[in-house]
Design goal:
Residues 71-283 form the Cytochrome b/b6 N-terminal region profile domain. By secondary structure, the protein is mainly α. It has a domain at 83-334: Cytochrome Bc1 Complex, Chain C, CATH 1.20.810.10. It has helices spanning 2-12, 70-79, 83-91, 104-123, 134-143, 148-175, 184-204, 211-222, 230-238, 245-277, 297-322, 348-356, 362-378, 380-383, 385-388, 394-420, and strands at 93-96, 293-296. A two-stranded antiparallel ribbon has the order 1-2. Helix 7 (184-204) runs antiparallel to helix 10, helix 12 packs antiparallel against helix 13 (362-378) and helix 12 (348-356) crosses helix 16 (394-420). The longest helix has 33 residues, at 245-277. The protein is globular and about 80 Å long.
Length: 421
């Protein structure tokens, strides 16, 4: 009985479940995706069953959260494209050494060119480029227009100052060998700018239509006749066989339309190269420890440049008041040429060489020398291979000194001759 009751009680108790036998995981069938991990972001549904990750794009205005004033924020929101350029200028550095002051003459050349543009635009409001009215309008600007005399004097003096600064900038660049690799195109574009500046002086000289300008242009345009094809060039410049009202119109169009357009294009390329390639130090300065440090181009160097601009502006006003250019006498093609006719001072060296070459075909030889010399001068960066290797090249330094001596001595000779008259 007891045994039966015991079996009955055992039969009435629930049976314990047996542990499940471990089952090996079946490998996923090819082509089936694995389940995503918990919390993982699900990829966005895409057409065609191909998942394309989201493209991260830069903010349209990365400077919108900058801490600036309300006015600064207003400008940043509208001109934020320019801000990376300013940041680049802030990072650009200029080396400091005992010859650093030569760097400022390039900026002074640019400043005097800006003065040329501004004063020229104002003078254009009153000047009339015709044979009958050119001199009359010129006198009207000088005597009747309020501050017209100041505009004309500053225009004339800034033209001379621009050419002088361009020459100083060119020779300082040459003697510091700043034309070496990779700045060859900076030198080429700078030389082209100098030639265009001389073209400004030549074409603008006739515009007052006074006696001195008339006969100086007649002498100047006569020189190319001796060269092959020179007669065609002279006729093209003059608009005929002689200097006339047609010459005045052509010089005016070259002076205010063609040359400014060409100069602006070349100047833009030159300034871009200056910003990209930076400022060069003389050969050996960095290795010998002669560089005292570096200063930021913006705003430190530009602030010093601006001081030079203010001094240049004050000098222009001083020269306009103390040493004004004369009005002269109206041009008369039938009158005899006055004594001592000569071009502007920046053509005196070439003018004197033409006078010195009195032998047969001397003028042609002089023109050939000028042309060959100019070509060799513009190719200096490609000829001076030692400088490109950061090695000193005394031969080119001597050549530069000879060219400078030729320009200074011949210019002084013309000055002495004119002073004796």
């Amino acid at each position: 009985m007891a045994e039966n009751n015991k079996n009955a009680m055992a039969g009435s108790a629930p049976a314990k479940p047996k542990p499940a036998a471990p089952v090996a995981a079946k490998p996923a069938a090819p082509g089936t995706a694995k389940p995503a991990a918990p919390g993982a972001a699900k990829p966005a549904a895409s057409t065609g069953g191909v998942y394309k990750p989201p493209v991260e794009r830069a903010a349209s205005n990365p400077y919108k959260d900058s801490r600036v004033s309300d006015l600064g924020a207003w400008f940043q929101e509208r001109f934020y494209v320019v801000l990376p350029v300013i940041d680049y200028l802030k990072k650009k550095e200029v080396p400091k050494h005992r010859l650093s002051f030569w760097y400022y003459f390039g900026g002074l050349t640019l400043f005097f060119f800006i003065i040329q543009i501004l004063t020229g635009l104002l003078l254009l409001q009153y000047y009339k480029p015709t044979e009958a009215e050119a001199f009359t309008s010129f006198v009207f600007i000088q005597q009747e227009v309020p501050f017209g005399w100041l505009l004309r004097q500053m225009h004339a003096w800034s033209a001379n100052a621009m050419v002088m600064m361009a020459f100083i900038h060119m020779f300082s660049t040459f003697f510091m060998k700043s034309y070496r690799k990779p700045r060859e195109l900076m030198w080429v574009s700078g030389f082209v700018l100098l030639v265009l500046s001389l073209g400004f002086g030549f074409t603008g000289y006739l515009l007052p239509w006074n006696e001195l300008a008339f006969f100086a242009t007649q002498v100047g345009t006569e020189v190319p006749k001796v060269a092959p094809g020179g007669a065609f060039l002279v006729t093209l410049l003059r608009g005929g066989e002689e200097v006339s009202g047609e010459t005045l119109t052509r010089m005016f169009s070259l002076h205010v339309v063609l040359l400014p357009g060409l100069l602006m294009l070349v100047l833009s390329a030159h300034l871009l190269l200056v910003q990209v390639l930076g400022t060069s130090a003389p050969i050996g300065y960095k290795e010998s420890g002669m560089i005292k440090g570096y200063e930021k181009f913006f705003p430190t160097f530009l602030a010093k440049d601006a001081i030079g601009w203010l001094i240049g502006f004050a000098l222009l006003v001083y020269l306009a008041v103390v040493s004004p250019w004369e009005i002269g006498v109206k041009a008369d093609a039938l009158a005899s040429a006055p004594l001592g006719i000569k071009p502007e001072w920046y053509f005196w060296a070439q003018f004197q060489l033409l006078k010195d070459f009195t032998f047969p075909n001397g003028e042609l030889v002089a023109i050939i020398l000028f042309t060959v010399g100019a070509i060799l001068w513009i190719l200096v960066p490609f000829i001076d291979t030692k400088s490109s290797k950061e090695e000193k090249s005394p031969i080119f330094t001597i050549i530069g000194l000879l060219v400078l001596a030729f320009l200074l001595i011949n210019t002084y000779r013309v000055y002495l001759e004119s002073a004796a008259l």
